[in-house]
Amino acid sequence: MAECFFLTRLPAELRVQIYEHILAFQRPLKLRQVVAGAKNTSVLRANRQIHSEALPVFFDLNIILATRNDFCEWPDSQLQTPIRRDQVRHLLVKHFGQSIRCSSFLSGNNMVLPGCCRSCHPSADGFIEALSHLPRLQTAVIDYHHHQREFGFIKATIEGIGSTNVYSRAGCQMTCIGIGKYQFTSGLLPPAPSITFTDSPLNYIWNRFSALESLGLFGVPEEKALLEYLRDDMDRALPDKLYLLHCARHSVLWLVIFQRVAELWQDVEDDLAEGRDPGASYEALTQDISGFMARHSVQDARMQLQLLRAEEARLQEWQSVEPQLPALAPEDHRGALLT
């Protein structure tokens, strides 16, 4: 057999660096998915030694994408992802509704019919228990963006509606740690893994806009490209609505038109600045933002932003032409804008 110089001439540390270079993927991976021309994991099939060296590197670096089907106790193997449960470190669970098999055992109002497995139960206690059995799991993110009702039921259950539920007995808590992001903790689970329930598009887009230091009422130079990217990559409706709030915060009318969200946003910043636990403030702000997004369409958000910018420009022109006149109070501008 010919000598494999990769294994015999290169030190192990250098081989690991090579594995890190070729096995790091930017997006979560669906292990059955193959995209022609894209990076792949064929190096893992080179030989047994390379496989044993590279496999831990692969799972250390990447997030594995799964669905509720992958945890159902009554599965159809064709519907499941071949997850290496003994290896996975980082997990992203999308399509968090019940599995295809168990969905037929569920009726309205989260009522469960005989036959539904524990992992697919609406309370999610069986699902979380299944996560705790992944021996090397470090982080698990459950994206509830398309399953708001299901998450609401889980959250209400964890918060103690019914003193005999499994979450109350286990000392479980759901703490809001960001916009649309909740940390799950339990006295029955070890510190690892970290389990979070996240509205991923909401949380990502909010944080993306918050990080724009140059953002003002009139946006940023790359506004059009940024919004189009977020619409295509994350969600069609959220970017315009959240962009309105971030831009409007720099308007003279901010405290008049968006009084409630302005106060809650300030509460979060005050808690962070003074070292207090911001959980309750994040929770209140998340709920208010969710209500705002439900009440307004994308067209409403775009029109509101245009009106705010036009009113701000008119005010600036007024003050430049008549600097000696007193500035108009914010309430004097409200009539021209949506509420």
From TrEMBL:
<protein>
    <submittedName>
        <fullName>Uncharacterized protein</fullName>
    </submittedName>
</protein>
<dbReference type="InterPro" id="IPR038883">
    <property type="entry name" value="AN11006-like"/>
</dbReference>
